[in-house]
Design a protein that fits this description.
The protein is α+β, with helices and mostly antiparallel strands and about 475 residues long. The chain has 10 helices and 12 strands. It has a 6-stranded antiparallel β-sheet. Helix 3 runs antiparallel to helix 4. The longest helix has 19 residues. The radius of gyration is 49 Å and the shape is elongated. The relative contact order is 0.10. The N terminus and C terminus are likely disordered.
Amino acid sequence: MSQMPQQAAVSKCPSCEEPLEPGDRFCGACGYDLSVVPARPEDSPTLAIHGVVPAPDDVAWPVARDSDGHGHPAPVHAAAELPGTDSGGSPLPPPPPAAPASAPAVPAAPAGAPTPGVRFDRPGEPEEYPLQAPDPRLTAEPAPVPGQAPAPEPAAASRQPAPAAPDAAEKVCVACRAGRVDDDGYCENCGHAQPRERDHMEQESGPIAAVSDRGLRHHRNEDAFSVGCTALPDGAPASVAIVCDGVSSATRPDDASLAASRAAGETLLGALPRGTHPQQAMHDAILAASQAVNALADEPATAREQAPHQNAPACTLVGAVVTAGLLVVGWVGDSRVYWVPADRTAPPARLTEDDSWAAQMVAAGLMNEAEAYADERAHAITGWLGADAYELEPHTASFKPDRPGVVVVCTDGLWNYAESAEEMAEAVPLDAAARPLHGARVLVGHALDGGGHDNVTVALLPFPAPSQGAGSA
């Protein structure tokens, strides 16, 4: 006869966790058959909280294997102490010798002392923290592992010394501040093109000053100037300014303007002290400048680019000589000279006439000035310095202003933004005669603010020439 299952002594239904009443054979919530719940086994712990659990008498535990036959357990070995074989079954080589005793400990720094370390200060600055020799435990080479291939040598590139810093006499790159600038104007380290020396030039010589700027659209400055002061034979002061504008469509226009300005300036500063009349000296200076530019056409640098007399180096020229009572101007091309009186109630004036298509149209009565300069051919020049010039016609004129003022000598990079005499007078600062360098900077800034489409060069000469003593700048 089968025996009925006994009710398990549980307080909650194993299926739905509902509380049970003593004597329940089924769960009142889910109907689970409580007779299938196995009886709780007797608790026979194998670990004791306190003391040792005695082994049951009916269990025959085997005796641990010993090495000496007296019941002592076999010694315990570390895995590294046991002989082994490699993947081919051959015995492994013997273990490496024990490492030497560790280096003596570094004594601790006294309380409040700074922590030793390395500083990355710039050369020449005092060290703020003491330096410490490296710990041999950190720098010693690791012992080779038996059977392991040696570590690869570092790459050749990593063993090459770092490039030496440029010498103090060499030009350093303005971009990376580390590379040396080569002869073609580029950094050998980062390749950045360096600003040219002629991109912006300023010079002050006694009471006169000049400023030249590359502008905002051109890749180089093709203008040049020369300024200086000297004295006439009677000791009266004389100021000289020459401004040249390279013809962009010609070969080497920057060289042409530089050669012309230097030749004209040197001629004037040499002729005036000998007693040459300023107007004659200006004429001779223009001829000297023309010869200097013509000579460039025969140089190999020009011959490689063009035939000597085809598209030869060319430029325009304008200059002024100011003495105690005389103002002389000279020009070839479309650069200009303006007269701006100190008393701004008096009218200003333009003292030169352009050698240009627009000026010819106005002189011939074919167009008025506004129409001519609005034409796209307006700035086509009809006179210039160069081996391919049709005919050199230096223009000179003398004036005797009846009041003090300032003479403005400039290229079209400036007067394009202040074309009329009234516009130029408005742009010239009121203190330009007393502060010529400041005034020249203001005028260059006026052109740059207007767009800076061309190179900008301007020289300012106060009239009459203040006494500065003999000599030239």
